[in-house]
Amino acid sequence: MHVLFCGVRGSTPATGPDFVRYGGNTSCVAVAHDDHDPTLVLDAGTGLSRLSRRLDGRPFRGTMLLGHLHWDHTHGLPFFPAGDRDGSDVTVLIPAQGDAEQVLARAISPPHFPITPAQLRGNWRFAGLDPGHHRIEGFDVTATEIPHKGGRTYGFRVADGDRTLAYLSDHWPVSLGDGADGLGPYHPAATGLAAGVDVLVHDAQYTAAEFATPRREFGHSAVEYAVGLAATAGARRLVLFHHDPSRTDDQIDALVAACDGRGVDVTAAAEGMTLDL
Fold this sequence. Notes:
The chain has 277 residues and is of the alpha/beta class. 15% of the residues lie in helices and 26% in strands. It has 5 helices and 14 strands. The chain has helices at 48-55, 100-105, 188-194, 223-233, 249-258; strands spanning 2-7, 28-32, 40-42, 61-65, 89-95, 123-129, 132-136, 139-145, 154-159, 164-168, 199-203, 238-241, 266-268, 274-276. Strands 6-5-4-3-2-1-14 form a 7-stranded mixed beta sheet. The model has no long low-confidence stretch (mean pLDDT 96).
């Protein structure tokens, strides 16, 4: 399994010299079988444009799984040259909630945007995805509903028979209670997705100290929770993801350094980073 981090930022893109090393585009992770072109995409934030560069003029043929429908996870859809072109073949699956194309068109249509999803070039299909186990693009995919503010949200577990990736980009565990550390419980949906995975990609938008402010209610996790979940679930590696848009490169470095000694292999997602599992 080959994993390409196309966008790693949360909420809104970040620009400027303080955000160069980790990148400023929003959530998008592309997954491929070995050295093949990516065929499975997790979320379609502004980072989706990087996948077009990776394809180098070839049309995208595959499936996008949207964990939820907030702007920072859908903004890349109409700015995706590899999909918006002749020869593309794109399936977009959203957490089941009515007609998928109509739901997406609430944000991607006039007067908010010049075209609708149906007007994208190539062959596009839109559908709802129910929780459970699915076979998608040659991967075994588990979709599980997890708490997040403002709409139905899934976490995903992706396996290729040898390696396993868990993806919980937006996760609000404190909505289920304080848990042992005041950062939310390690609830069954989260531990089930992360159990024994090779890599856990997890929401790390805030810190425990920042939870003392209203950020606790914004729908995300603390870095310390992500580390605790990885340890509890037996994940082999944790990748901190969905960085706060104000978090600079140096501040992210400091967050990773602070995780040292907690018994978990921790790194921070950076735009353009690749993992071969």
